[in-house]
From TrEMBL:
Localization, UniProt: Cell membrane
UniProt-listed Gene3D superfamilies: MetI-like
Keyword Cell membrane found: yes
Name recorded for this polypeptide: Binding-protein-dependent transport systems inner membrane component
Length: 307
């Protein structure tokens, strides 16, 4: 039988414990500020309005995609379908070449996102860790480009792509959009927080810039790179204007333009098929967003507060 004999505290240890406890700052838990009732009611009303504006169109979209035709046009509105009309999806798929639209969107989104994020990482590392002439003016110039609306460069890009013979090609869709100051700035904000001591230690070990970037900086900036990748991917998938301008045949159209093609084929009478086509276009990005929403919001908030 063993006994657990604990030593009694001596006077010296008690004094030491008292001194340690005196050195440790005691932080009181933050007091919860209770808002007035009127403020809380106003916040609840704003929350309800926001929920109505953003959620109700999605509910109407998803329910209308499986509604019979008469449920869509009935008044007052029929929110819950009286029967599931899954034929709307087959009608949309056969009325327009959605398989080709999906393939085009997949190719342009994956290749465009890879190139844009890759360039953003390289340029962010250069601005954060490489010394070169005119660094600050160039950085300010890139930030200033974010203030310009994207439509300003449409005409110049179209003329350039046309002169290069890239109209109605994947190169013409992807390459003009791979330069992104927003993604660069987002990743740059995270790279600035990488400790100089860690980078200098890798430098003393003989690592060059590429090795330091690949083995040290990128792993420590991975959360922000993931956030930037998701945001760029959503923008590529939903891009409408540039693919509409630079392509001219149905087999090169992407999904957002395919929806307009579907509406032109179905007219304004078969809204069930059009809603089903819209669900097929929106559902992949909605699923990715719901899975990664915490990462996206956290990354954007961190990028906005880190200086």
């Amino acid at each position: 039988m063993s006994l657990d004999v604990r030593p009694l505290p001596t006077a010296s240890s008690a004094v030491a414990d008292a001194a340690l406890s005196a050195d440790v700052p005691t932080t009181a838990p933050p007091r919860r500020v209770r808002r007035p009732l009127a403020v809380r009611l106003a916040l609840y009303v704003l929350l309800a309005l926001t929920l109505t504006v953003f959620v109700l169109p999605l509910v109407w979209l998803f329910t209308s995609a499986v509604k019979p035709e008469h449920d869509i046009y009935v008044y007052p509105l029929q929110w819950i379908p009286t029967a599931l009309e899954l034929a709307n999806f087959s009608d949309a798929w056969t009325a327009a070449p959605f398989d080709r639209f999906f393939l085009n969107s997949l190719i342009t989104t994956v290749s465009g996102t890879t190139l844009e994020v890759g360039l953003a990482v390289l340029s962010a590392y250069a601005f954060a860790f490489v010394r070169f002439r005119w660094k600050t003016p160039l950085f300010l110039l890139m930030l200033g480009s974010m203030m310009l609306p994207g439509h300003v460069t449409l005409l110049v890009n179209y003329i350039t792509v046309g002169n290069l013979g890239w109209l109605n090609t994947y190169l013409g869709i992807v390459l003009p959009g791979i330069g992104s100051a927003f993604a660069m700035f987002l990743i740059y904000q995270q790279m600035r927080r990488v400790s100089d001591e860690v980078v200098d230690a890798a430098k003393l070990d003989g690592a060059g810039h590429l090795r330091r970037m690949w083995s040290v900086v990128i792993p420590m900036s991975r959360p922000m790179i993931l956030t930037g990748t998701l945001i760029v991917m959503f923008a590529k998938w939903n891009d409408y204007v540039w693919p509409l301008i630079v392509t001219s045949t149905v087999d090169m159209r992407t999904l957002p333009i395919g929806l307009m093609f579907l509406r032109s084929q179905e007219g304004y009478t078969n809204w069930g098929a059009i809603m089903a086509g819209t669900v097929m276009v929106a559902l992949p990005m909605l699923l990715i967003f719901f899975v990664a929403q915490r990462r996206i919001i956290g990354g954007l908030a961190a990028g906005a507060t880190k200086g």
